[in-house]
Amino acid sequence: MANRTYSDAAYRALEDENASELATALLKAAIHYSGHWRTNKDAAALLTAVNARPAEFRQRLVDALADALAPLADDSPAPANALGITAAVGRGLTWGEPLDAVRREKLDEIGRKGAVHYCGWVPELVLAELDAGRTVPPAVVATLRRSALVAYGYQPVVALAPRLTEPVLNVGEAWADRAMADGERWHALLAHAATATAAKPTGKWEKTGRALIEEAAVGSAAGSAAGSGEGAGEDAVRERLLGWFRLVGAPRTLALQGEQYGPNPNDEFDAYNANALRGLAWLLSFLPPHPDTARTLGALAETSLRNVAGLGPRCPKVANAAVTALSRIDGEASLAELARLATRVTFKGTLKMLDSALEARAVALGLSREEIEELAVPAYGLTSVGRAAYELGGTTALVEVRGAKAVLSWRSSAGKAVKSVPAAVRRDHAEELKELKAAVKDIDKMLGAQAERLDRQFLARRTWSYGKWRERYVDHPLVGTLARRLLWVVDGTPVGFADGELRTLADTPVAEATEVTEGAEVTLWHPIDREPAEAAAWRDWLERHGITQPFKQAHREVYPLTDAELRTGTYSNRFAAHYLRQHQFHSLAALRGWRNKLRLAVDDSAPPAVRELPQWGLRAEYWIEGDGGDHDDLDITDSGSFLRLRTDQVRFYPIGAPENLAHACGGEYTMWLRDGEAPVDPVPLAEVPALVLSEVLRDVDLFVGVASVGNDPTWQDGGPGGRFHDYWTSYGFGELSQSAETRRLLLERLVPRLAIADRCRIEGRFLHVRGELRGYRIHLGSGNILMDPGDQYLCIVPAGRTASGPETGYLPFEGDRTLALILSKAMMLADDTGITDPSITRQILSERA
Predict the structure, then answer these.
(1) Of 330, 403, 609, 832, most Cβ neighbours within 10 A?
(2) Is 530 inside a domain boundary?
(3) Residues 9 and 50 in one domain
């Protein structure tokens, strides 16, 4: 110790057997060293000397420590230190009421924490509880178990945690509370699951797990025979596990206090319970395959990958365990979940596992990865394209795909529509009803995943033989609902599906127009390959047949080379000098198949955002850098990542070219050359295939259109420090991008059909709306609004995800949120006297000139 005054006084008091003076010296030493005295070698030696004294003396010391608390403030460190010293020297002794009260208070405080790196006297306190024969509160056990798992955990806690065997799981999470409440006969299974600390189950772990499943199944069978009401055997085990999994991600039942910095522990998975979740996922894969198992594991993976502020994905190891379990389960349902997750998951580690699992299935079946994804899509009970009918008693249940959603409806025996589920169905067909509702949810999830997969086929250079294409796409019960709303090229002839069959642009059935063989080549139609007049004609055709495409195809933006890009030669500045919300860009880029690294405000290098195009031998790059500005506290998250990015060039390189790197905080990109590698020049834009250039630039346009800070309606003041004011204004009301220009052309066709057509007109970059109180101009790129007279800004913050309501009428494609937002704003502002939101009416009325 740098200053031995307090320890010398303690040793003198110990020698004199003066318990009162020893108590005072010990407390002063602990307070002087701000709690770190507990880890000091001299302190350890002193406590050892005290513990060597007879119990009678130590009891007097404990009593003296209790007496010393009376004159001390409750908010001082003295009570905690007195409690800690008592715990260290007073095991097996009687504690006075003051110390006992502090003990209870301290234990309650510990139980409300997440995980802590330094626990002070906590280990001694818990050991004292154990020595006294008292049960350590479950919340305290949970805190210590979590604390033992943090990086560089406090060693006394790490050593103590294995002694805390009860309860079998940590309390505080809904699923764990339910699992423990379901009875002790499940505790052996849960205890084994909690030992799943490796990435994959070992042979020994699996053998024990299978034995425990068999034991639980036998117990369930016995319970069923005894009339417990529970199912029998392995089915009962599966249902029990699935019931727990369905509660994963529910709000905590015991709220925790977080640290000043870092993520909110109430949004995270309990670290100890996460091991148990991993083990339970593996255990599910040891049971016979079942559709409920696959869908529940898929949901578990998605729940585990939801982002938490300051942390990122909630718990990737649980998501990975779900994928591992799915990859071990045979059957259509598990393969379908793997394929669906591969289109939805963006977390790199889990996505890599999904890719490996699908590749392994493809190799085992002798198919390509693309074919395995096509064959993985189940029908979910649909008996024709987008439809199935089931007779349940005297009622018909109809499952129908309508656009992007599946709908369950009911018909009476007389064929009349029934608004709600008939009582007889609920009573007599509960299991069938449950499965129908689950199928509807499954279809909804898979529709979105398949639309994403189809949208990526333009760059995949996929071709199909006519026979396989009919089977896997047009006539597939689920995929057919998407494929029949797209345009295709069959044996060189563009076709669409209408009135029950494939038709040409002239509406001639393909069977009459040409004789198509089973081996004829089929590709997706893309406007870059077609004359503008043909694209316009197909738009008319879709409109005439009332077809809403699952994504932009006939209306798809194309991005031919500009004169400026011909001059720059090897790079495009078309989407440079924008400010994007980093985390939104990061998620969107991953969904579109780009690889990106979050920019942190640290001394590190990072590559640009990259999309690899192996079918074309190219690598697309979007050059970006972190934007720290002049207000670090406003521009950087607590976890150190930049809130925003600045954008620069788009470039193309051969796919095997060395990586480009730049400092995360900004600066020039340079090629990282290793082992004598020679630098590789970028590919001239004029040599990039037109389809590739157009699709890559369309992705980048999407990133800017969605993630730009110019889209934030609350930033009319320019954001932090006002430094984005000029950018926000130029973006929010400036020239239209290609995607916004496409939106303008579409609105010119849609607006005349609206109920408010007489109040609307399109001029230049704006949709003009005439209300009763004001005139309004809605920008067709950002959706921002200016009011007339005076160009006054009207801030309207969308309440949530905006969808086209019935009042907007027919829309030719799904997915353009800004289009739906503009139409909904136009509808509202045309009837501005009917607006009731005070935040909007206040702006309209108070700013009127």
Answers:
(1) 609
(2) yes
(3) yes
